[in-house]
Design goal:
The chain has helices spanning 3-7, 18-30, 34-51, 64-80, 85-101, 131-139, 144-156, 160-165, 168-176, 210-227, 246-249, 256-269, 280-293, 298-305, 313-316, 322-330, and strands at residues 10-11, 14-15, 182-186, 204-208. By secondary structure, the protein is mainly α. It has two domains: 3-108, no CATH class; 131-330, Intergrase catalytic core (hpI Integrase, Chain A, Orthogonal Bundle), CATH 1.10.443.10.
Length: 337
């Protein structure tokens, strides 16, 4: 249990505080997303500490005018710390929801000014590498594991959290069968490893290319020589933090910050000028470009990206035809010939 959960007496989707319990039950009905739960709890906890309140139930006894003033001061404080406009506005949305589910509606609605966020607003510069640059990154990454990580990120299009939440059993059967293109499942239970792993609780699958599958096999062979047999429930990509004993390290997935650092370091070693602006999510966008340039049907592109299929497509899109999708995926050109 995290510090924010302890402060707000949170256990799962309930709380010992009545006001917080209403908030959690609201999100439990709406999205049931672990990521949303943690973010909402974290924002409310920080707000309580900012205003000096130990009992969040005291907040809903405030007048709408005072509550509005305190929330405005809090989000202004966040912005003054140079946090992104997007983050500040998201925090505001969580707090307004907290007050709304606790009776601050209609004439009691909070009056707080939201920060203007331009379309396509981005606080940090982002550089999307070309397929040729990704190839250079993979082979400049410094280790067999890092090469497999970069190739897997790019050719599957998985999000940072999703890739890190993969277990060995998720790909074991097809890897051991010697298939060139490996199916990679994404499913809600991944959230037990990382709360952000299956966005929107949308199950889908993608694939690893021949190059990524080969790199993964080389990494797993090397890992067996170091750690012995790989158990089904072990992370597919484990941490290499040296201050953790070997027998414990094999159970810990590579950390989020570590994966970002691996990608940036590989980009720098590959001689990419804007290496600082490359993140794991940038490789997902390179993957998206590869799908688009391959001429894949839009529905197939959206499915492999893990997006909600627009309109009525989801009602007739058959997710079960794995081999048909594998053949379509095989036509995607990920690297220059």
């Amino acid at each position: 249990m995290g510090v924010h959960e302890r402060f707000l007496r949170v256990e799962g989707w309930g709380s010992g505080f009545e006001s917080v319990d209403r908030l959690l039950r609201h999100y439990g009905r709406k999205v049931r997303s672990e990521h949303t739960r943690l973010n909402a709890v974290g924002t409310l906890s920080r707000f309580c500490r900012f205003v000096g309140v130990d009992d969040p139930d005291d907040l809903v006894r405030l007048s709408p005018q005072k509550a509005s003033r305190l929330v405005q001061e809090f989000i202004d404080h966040l912005r003054e710390r140079d946090l992104s406009i997007r983050y500040v506005n998201i925090c505001l949305a969580y707090l307004k929801t907290f007050f709304r589910v606790n009776g601050f509606k209609n004439s009691r609605e909070l009056e707080v000014e939201r920060y203007f966020q331009p379309s396509r607003y981005m606080k940090r510069e982002e550089y999307i590498p070309t397929p040729e640059e990704v190839y250079r990154m993979a082979y400049a990454s410094g280790s067999v594991r890092n090469r497999a990580l970069i190739l897997a990120l790019y050719t599957s299009g998985l999000r940072n959290s999703t890739l890190r939440a993969l277990l060995y059993r998720d790909v074991k059967e097809e890897l051991e069968a010697g298939l060139d293109i490996i199916k990679v499942p994404v499913y809600p239970e991944m959230k037990k490893v990382d709360p952000s792993a299956c966005k929107g609780n949308i199950p889908y699958y993608s694939f690893l290319s021949k190059e990524a599958a080969q790199a993964l096999r080389e990494y797993l062979d090397e890992r067996r020589r170091t750690y012995g047999k790989i158990e089904d429930d072990e992370p597919l990509f484990i941490s290499e933090t040296t201050n953790i004993a070997l027998n414990k390290r094999r159970k810990i997935p590579v950390m989020k910050k570590s994966l970002s650092a691996i990608v940036k370091k590989a980009a720098r070693k590959a001689g990419i000028k804007k290496w600082k602006a490359i993140t794991p999510h940038c490789l997902r966008k390179t993957f998206e470009s590869a799908l688009r340039n391959s001429g894949l049907d839009v529905k197939d592109q959206e499915f492999l990206m893990g997006h909600i299929l627009p309109g009525s497509q989801d009602t007739y899109y058959d997710k079960t035809k794995v081999e048909n999708m594998r053949r379509k995926y095989a036509k995607v050109i990920f690297f220059p010939q």
